Amino acid sequence: MADVVSFNIVSASYVGTAVNASQYPESDLTEIAFIGRSNVGKSSLINSLCRRHGLARTSGTPGKTQTINFFKLSGKLPDESRLDFMLVDLPGYGYAKRAQTARATWSKFIEEYWLKSTKLRLVCQLIDVRHPPMESDIKVYQWLLEHGLTVQVVATKGDKITKGRVQQHVQAISKGINMPLLAPDDRIITYSTVSGAGRDELLDVIRNILLK
Known about the structure:
By secondary structure, the chain is of the alpha/beta class. It has a single domain, classed as Rossmann fold (3-Layer(aba) Sandwich), CATH 3.40.50. The protein is built from five helices and seven strands. It has helices spanning 42-50, 100-116, 135-146, 163-176, 199-211; strands at residues 8-18, 31-36, 68-76, 82-89, 120-128, 151-156, 189-190. A seven-stranded mixed sheet has the order 1-3-4-2-5-6-7. It is globular.
């Protein structure tokens, strides 16, 4: 993996919540979206990334969050210059107890954002490193690629397995989602909200997107 370039979040603030395109905030900032199965640890990862406890609300009820939440972030480069962007927190998918009609509404709701946002440059798809990808993980990943979106897979809960088993689990994710051969396994970032492992790598990916 390439050397990590210093880039750190220095401010993060809530901007707004949307349930349809008319409610998206008016902004020219590049958008970086985060999505994953319900209970994958998305809110905890966002809080860890921003080093702001409680910025994204965590819930013990999988599938509870049903809105798109926008946060304005500012990151500082080594030369003290700033890069501002919008972090977009998307609702979790794949919760088994959710009614079929609710899942269909979610699908339409999220696809509308993915297809209509003109500022979206990266989707970070979170997958629990402890388990092989589920059908919903695979479908979301393939849909994103088919629609030309740039995807960064992040294997969450890296502290829940031993270091010696991480690469084996990462390879299982890569194989399970049928990651293209041009995207080697080391493009999957393993993240631990406990130790902070993977944070610098993910921030480096975001930085490179913002500088394009």
